[in-house]
């Protein structure tokens, strides 16, 4: 019988990574052949990306990969319509990202372009800001109407930052980034990212930074040109109501729906109306998830659980108070 699944995080050493995954989220960096990771830019919490498949951490399925569980249970795990749409490919990827330095300016291709070039899904994503140093900011989109030629010229003469929309970010802020939107995460931000299962990034500009061997990182400026959506928006931030003890929708897209749950009292969530798995990401506080069959799992800030489609209801019991992102495939 399926139950709420938790997974062992996959730690990613990044040139821009820091120590908040450890100091704020309490995750011990793993030790490799050269000793402990010096820093950590990302943890992949729930992943079906080939070569980076999550492994179940607890319960009767402990040690099994997400891929093996999906192949064994199919619609029971992900839902009938999700299984019909994606088969044995798990459709979402959940990460925590610690930007100790600015990430590269980048863009992700949409499904059509990613399939054509890489035989992959595109990458639409969202960010939820968990912690922000004073003045920390990020980029989402352009700050004015920009033509393709203007963009190409700005990249060529290193004035790309002049046309980017930069805004300060604060805990609780949400940014939805459809494939094609130019973006980067600025230094001083710790966030949760929910995205399509894809690891395709076109790096546009990397602030001329060099790796530990003195090399510049590869750029993908030509690939990026046709991947970018040049549409200008007056407001790129995702606005949602901040309510207590009531689930609030923040993002609705073709790929995932995400609700923000801020509760300081017990709540029953009935999922019988959904034909999808549910991912719960704890971004503040802690809670216990109680499911049918007497199974319960504790989550604290920086931890996630996958509720299989066959588990039709859970009770969320906050330890004081909690903020949880609740995501599923529409």
From TrEMBL:
Domain Phosphomannose isomerase type I catalytic: 8-119
Gene3D superfamilies with a match to the protein in the record: Jelly Rolls (2.60.120.10)
Alphabetical list of InterPro entries matching this protein: Carb_Metab_Reg_Kinase/Isom, Man6P_isomerase_Firm_short, MPI_cupin_dom, PMI_typeI_cat, RmlC-like_jellyroll, RmlC_Cupin_sf
CDD domains hit by this protein: cupin_PMI_type_I_N_bac
GO molecular function, one term: isomerase activity
Domain of life: Bacteria
Location of the Mannose-6-phosphate isomerase cupin domain: 250-325
Alphabetically ordered keywords of this record: Isomerase, Metal-binding, Zinc
Protein name, per record: Phosphohexomutase
Species the sequence originates in: Fibrella forsythiae
């Amino acid at each position: 019988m399926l139950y709420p699944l938790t997974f062992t995080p996959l730690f990613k050493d990044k040139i821009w990574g820091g120590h908040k995954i450890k100091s704020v989220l309490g995750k011990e960096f793993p030790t490799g052949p050269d000793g402990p990771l010096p820093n950590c830019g990302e943890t992949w919490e729930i992943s079906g990306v080939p070569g980076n498949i999550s492994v179940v951490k607890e319960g009767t399925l402990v040690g099994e990969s997400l891929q093996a569980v999906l192949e064994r249970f199919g619609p029971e795990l992900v839902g009938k319509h999700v299984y019909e749409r994606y088969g044995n490919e798990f459709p979402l990827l959940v990460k925590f990202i610690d930007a100790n330095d600015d990430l590269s300016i980048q863009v992700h291709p949409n499904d059509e372009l990613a399939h054509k070039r890489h035989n992959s899904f595109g990458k639409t994503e969202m960010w939820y800001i968990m912690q922000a140093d004073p003045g920390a900011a990020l980029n989402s989109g352009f700050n004015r109407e920009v033509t393709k030629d203007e963009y190409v010229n700005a990249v060529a003469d290193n004035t790309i930052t002049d046309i980017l929309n930069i805004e300060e970010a604060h805990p609780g802020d949400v940014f939805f980034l459809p494939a094609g939107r130019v973006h980067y995460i600025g230094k001083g931000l710790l966030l949760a990212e929910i995205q399509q299962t894809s690891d395709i990034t076109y790096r546009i500009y990397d602030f001329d930074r060099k790796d530990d061997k003195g090399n510049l990182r590869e750029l993908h400026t030509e690939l990026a040109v046709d991947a970018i959506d040049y549409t200008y928006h007056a407001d790129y931030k995702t606005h949602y109501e901040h309510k207590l003890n009531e689930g609030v929708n923040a993002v609705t897209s073709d790929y995932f729906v995400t609700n923000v749950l801020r509760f300081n009292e017990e709540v029953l969530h009935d999922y019988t109306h959904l034909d999808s798995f549910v991912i719960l990401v704890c971004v503040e506080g802690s809670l216990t998830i109680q499911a049918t069959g007497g199974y319960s799992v504790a989550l604290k800030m920086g931890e996630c659980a996958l509720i299989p489609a066959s588990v039709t209801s859970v009770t969320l019991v906050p330890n004081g108070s909690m903020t949880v992102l609740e995501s599923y495939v529409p």
